[in-house]
Design a protein that fits this description.
By secondary structure, the chain is mainly alpha-helical. The protein has 20 helices and no strands.
């Protein structure tokens, strides 16, 4: 354990963190590539916005979120590296099958398969990082992990946007699937399961699952952190999933142009923001642990008015400029949220804590965010006409105000919860 903690070479903790960051990147690549392909898919299958929202939201999120619970039980008991490797292989293969779909139903089922595969990566990944990095370093490590989401978001938009223009949306899906299969082999060959700080539990499956959920959710600040991330996630997924369509419809961009612009802002700048936010929070954390709640609250509060202004302007340059700061701050919440939840729960429940968070976050955030935008867009169309999508995105964005309040409440209770006997 000590060698692994100090090593920076192949197999060391920094190497493991890099591979887990790539895992999240390919996770988001296969998840988010659909966003830039919604317009051509909708045109080919003649789908309204509500059906596109269903495809990009709940088709993936329901299975991704629900299966996270039983997979977390496995991750708290068995080899986490193997669980991650198998999961990557599954979601990569299912992404390739998305490209082979010839009907909406086939594509819907393939997206469910992507969700099934991706369900196994985050609980095990965060549990491993929590074993490798102490609390003083963990927000920075989790921030680096979170940057993988921005990298994958960027790659999904770039690959999806340009490959669609050159070869069509089916080839774009197949191209996105290939890197994950290579990563599976690298993880199996170079990563060893880290030593756990406590022996895994071996209770009955159902009782273990129910007990884990109760232990996680009985902690007040954990509940507030989960709610804060979920409400922000609903607005963020709703906005980001439909952002390529917004630029295509209202600013006359091609899929390649929209994908490139958004990938730079959310992928490059957002990835930098995720790492920087984690580092800043880690330093502030040494003075006051409440910064784990304050940092996300501040980043969301700064972003909301800028995003509303961006959605309402018809000036393309201004729209892109207004998106820069929200893009920088888009993933800042993740590092502090993931890090403190891992510290608040008992060490033998860390994977379960992630899965509970991801269950709520993804069912409500990822599942309902894009779907809500699509439904509202169709509902607003009779009175707002072609502007219905931008008003739908503004409406969903307002939900993140609840995230600001929740993070502030999490900050108010986190010190007391960290000192509680149950956590110790």
């Amino acid at each position: 354990m000590a060698d692994s903690m100090n090593s920076t070479g192949i197999g060391g903790r920094h190497w493991v963190l890099a591979l887990l960051t790539l895992t999240l990147a390919f996770n988001f690549l296969d998840r988010q590539i659909l966003g830039v392909l919604l317009e051509p898919i909708g045109q080919e299958f003649d789908l309204p916005d509500s059906m596109l929202g269903l495809l990009s939201g709940i088709a993936f999120a329901a299975f991704y979120a629900v299966l996270g619970i039983p997979i977390a039980v496995l991750a708290d008991r068995y080899n986490r590296r193997n669980i991650i490797a198998v999961s990557i292989a599954i979601f990569s293969v299912m992404t390739a099958l998305c490209g082979a779909a010839t009907s909406f139903v086939q594509l819907f089922l393939a997206r469910i398969g992507v969700g099934v595969g991706e369900a196994g990566t985050m609980p095990a990944s965060q549990s491993i990082i929590a074993d490798l990095y102490p609390l003083t370093e963990r927000p920075a490590a989790m921030g680096i992990l979170a940057s993988g989401g921005s990298i994958g978001f960027m790659l999904g938009l770039l690959i999806g946007g340009w490959v669609n223009e050159w070869y069509g949306w089916r080839v774009a899906f197949m191209t996105a699937a290939f890197p994950g299969l290579l990563l599976t082999l690298v993880i199996l060959l170079t990563v060893k399961e880290p030593a756990r700080k406590i022996n895994p539990t071996r209770q009955a499956w159902v009782s273990e699952t129910w007990l884990g959920i109760r232990i996680v959710l009985r902690i007040m600040s954990v509940r507030w952190f989960v709610l804060g991330g979920t409400l922000y996630g609903l607005s963020a997924y709703g906005i980001h999933t439909w952002m390529p369509v917004y630029y295509i419809r209202y600013h006359d961009m091609s899929t390649g142009e929209a994908g490139t612009a958004i990938s730079i802002i959310v992928g490059v700048i957002g990835g930098f923001g995720a790492v920087l936010g984690g580092i800043v929070c880690a330093r502030l954390n040494t003075r006051d642990v409440r910064w784990n709640g304050w940092v996300p609250a501040l980043s969301i509060a700064i972003s909301v008015p800028l995003l509303i202004a961006m959605l309402l302007t018809d000036n393309t340059s201004l729209a892109l400029g207004l998106f820069l700061i929200p893009g920088l701050l888009s993933s800042v919440y993740a590092g502090p949220t993931w890090a403190i939840i891992q510290e608040l729960v008992p060490v033998e429940r860390r994977a379960m804590a992630v899965s509970v968070y991801m269950l709520i976050y993804n069912l409500i955030g990822l599942g309902l965010g894009p779907l809500a935008v699509g439904i509202l867009s169709d509902l607003y169309r009779p009175w707002s006409g072609d502007d219905s999508l931008r008003w739908a995105m503004c409406s969903v964005l307002l939900v993140s105000i609840g995230g600001i309040i929740s993070y502030a409440l999490a900050a108010s209770s986190v010190r007391q919860d960290l000192e509680a006997p149950a956590v110790a």
